[in-house]
UniProtKB/TrEMBL annotation:
Native species: Fictibacillus terranigra
Knr4/Smi1-like domain sequence ranges: 39-145
Domain of life: Bacteria
Signal peptide location: none
Name of the protein this chain belongs to: YrhA family protein
């Protein structure tokens, strides 16, 4: 089991102390709708299966300054009552800068972006806003685990 799943349990415990909880998992229909629209709106990119597993556990995360993007509200079957940073819409914002189009953005924090570098085929943590490489990872799972550990 990826380490981030255990870390989500820790976050859930903290959220419960404050009367809050993690977001509900994304539905398979919602994931499919998002996937069907990615190529039209972002170009020839494919999201990793590990990210899909994350969405099946929790539809995005916003905890202690760390945001991992979820399913865009346009593709949700049910309305939600909290702000959700959608994967496609957030990547569209970052893609307004041409140099950022070489990345798939999965999340960000106050000081970093968590991405996949399409050219180097690596998961990376980049300094925000300079784009300087902070660290690279061999998998989405290790990048996500490291990002969560940073905010716990």
């Amino acid at each position: 089991m990826p380490q981030w799943k255990d870390l989500l349990i820790e976050i859930e415990k903290i959220e419960k102390k404050y009367g809050s909880s993690l977001r509900e998992p994304a539905l398979d229909t919602e994931i499919r709708k998002m996937n069907d629209n990615i190529h039209q709106r972002l170009g020839n990119i494919t999201i990793t299966q590990s990210y899909i597993e994350f969405l099946q556990k929790v539809n995005g995360l916003d905890f202690n300054g760390l945001v991992i993007y979820g399913i865009d509200e346009d593709f949700l079957d049910n309305e939600i009552d909290e702000e959700l940073h959608g994967f496609i819409e957030t990547n569209e914002i970052w893609y307004e800068n041409d140099w950022q189009k070489k990345y798939i953005f999965y999340g960000d924090s106050d000081t970093a972006w968590y991405c996949f570098d399409l050219k180097e085929q690596l998961y990376v943590e980049l300094d925000k806003p300079s784009g300087t490489l902070i660290q690279s990872y061999d998998s989405f799972d290790s990048m996500l685990s490291d990002a969560i550990e940073t905010v716990l």
